[in-house]
Fold this sequence. Notes:
The structure holds two protein chains of two kinds.
Chain A: H1 5-10, H2 24-36, H3 42-68, H4 83-107, H5 114-137, H6 164-197, H7 201-211, H8 218-251, H9 263-290, H10 298-328, H11 332-343, H12 347-359, H13 367-370, H14 373-400, H15 415-438, H16 444-460
Helix pairs in contact in A: 2-16, 3-15, 4-5, 4-8, 4-9, 4-14, 5-6, 5-15, 6-7, 6-8, 8-9, 9-10, 9-14, 10-11, 11-12, 12-14
Chain B: E1 6-13, H1 16-28, E2 34-37, H2 45-48, H3 56-82, H4 95-121, E3 145-150, H5 158-166, E4 172-177
Antiparallel strand pairs in B: 1-3, 1-4, 2-3
Amino acid sequence: MADSPIDKLANGQPAPILGPGHDYASVTDKISSIVLAHKTPRWWIFGFAISFAFVMLLMYAVTYLFAVGVGTWGVQVPVAWGFAIVNFVWWIGIGHAGTLISAILLLLRQQWRTSINRFAEAMTLFAVACAGLFPVLHLGRPWVAYWLFPYPDTMKMWPNFRSPLVWDAFAVSTYATVSLLFWFIGLLPDLATLRDRAKNKAAKIIYGFLAMGWRGSAVHWFRHETASLLLAGLATPLVLSVHTIVSFDFAFGIVPGWHSTIFPPYFVAGAIYAGFAMVLTLSIPVRKVFGLEDFITARHLDNMGKVMLATGLIVGYGYMMEAFTGYYSANQFEKYITLNRMNGHYAVVYWCLIACNIITPQFLWFRKIRANVAALFTIAMVVNVGMWLERFVIVVTSLARDFTPSAWGNYYPTRWDWAVLFGSIGLFVALIFLFIRFLPLISIFEMRSLVNEEGKRVPENPGVPDMSS
Amino acid sequence: MKSHSNYGLMAEFKTAEELIHAAQATTNAGYHRIDAFSPFPVEGLADAVGFHSTRLPLVVLLGGMFGGVFGFLLQYYAAAISYPLNVGGRPLNSWPAFIPITFELTILFAAGAAVFGMLIMNGLPTPYHPVFNVPRFALASRDRFFLCIKARDPQFDLVGTRKFLESLNPREVSDIDV
Lengths: 469, 178
């Protein structure tokens, strides 16, 4: 194809955000046909089966955990926050890119977000679902997890509202609720499309039920747009607050290596970095198997690569400042923990993290690499791993070497720790598989809007590349 | 002549621009009980059918304010009234520590007000609506644009209104059975 988006990219012109020759009907049919296809593709059954096997592993590990107790994990005093908190912070961070794409880029009128936003929002929901498991799992008595929330109880007690752990419970549950509402509001018109296009009686009834009788009235659209915009405005500070509060879990403690004011911005940047890596990890295979290259174009991948590079540099600055703070604090414990991370017991993990998160994304400076799908996918995978290692370094090294040498101790994960980690990845992937089979993975009505706007632009200034977005 | 078995008349158009022009012409002709349907939000269409502003932002503001006040009072009541705990003589109303939850509940209630306010104002869920009785209306969620003049408009007249809609150059005009 001489006129492929990548060729245009090489010419130095911005590639389009929508393939040529699409109209309202073609985008509608293309995206809804993925859901309404009568036959489930074989790769779907295969992939879902594998991820579902990991969900079963999670179930098994959690059942064993509840039956026997957290002693089955490697957590021990002084490292009482093992994989559970590492995984929690990792998953919640991954979720943040979805909200960034759906809310912040909406407010900034970045039209290229349209085709990836539904998908990224779903990723947010599923990542938050995985994250939400861990704080409950690592409780000694998980069956009383509801004590985190205030309710008039017979003990006449309240949660400690001055504790970041209680803030966390509020932040994460608010985030999950608002993400779900935002996602559902966006889905509503598309569910109506599926209802109108479904041939199967059961599908018609189920999508019809979920679409709530949406009929595309001008007045309804007006309120829908107002609500979406307001939600975007509300979700933007929310997403920043969530990871800020997650970082407070650490920064409010006096443990060396945690007690630092750089944590909130550094955690938020890390969250967006990890999240974009996950969006790339998921969207590259999806656009390939469904032939969605016209909708998720080379331009999208290029932009996501740029966002990763920018946030990766902020994260790199965070690491640098952490080390500098340790050196400049003139505090022997801060100094020690910084040096210990670099050449202590967990030095291998630290240097792997630097290689994954600081060195690898530097390749994204090159346009050729951002245009190379395989290279982008590899970099995204490396960053996914790197961000998990980052949380491991933060959680484990500080706890293992705090103030008194007699209280030092190392942490070694057991097979149950690994089972829960891989089980949660299985849960995430299984949910993604269900999502792409049963709901439109690209917002159909927003794509129709995009067709409308692209159609308007062409006659006005033919041949001029679109520089506005 | 008013017909009781008729919800109104529905005209189908091919493009968003045609629909806006038709809606404006209909409003200018003195019809007020009209509605337009499109597969995506069309700028200016709500204006053209005579709908200029929504109170939704006010509802969201009130929701957010309620959430913020409720969130703060909840913590104040718990920490200063119901279960006062003296931590080294620090003030019971330690308001800076109450900010994060106050903020989260502000957002939670404002977002809830936006979503449920939008649904309630739009009258959703609507289990039954006559417009779906027009067979081609299923295309309103794909690629076609519709304009409806309701029978309860005082100017509505089955013959005259049909003639008027046909003058707007639609693809076709159909009756909407109740």
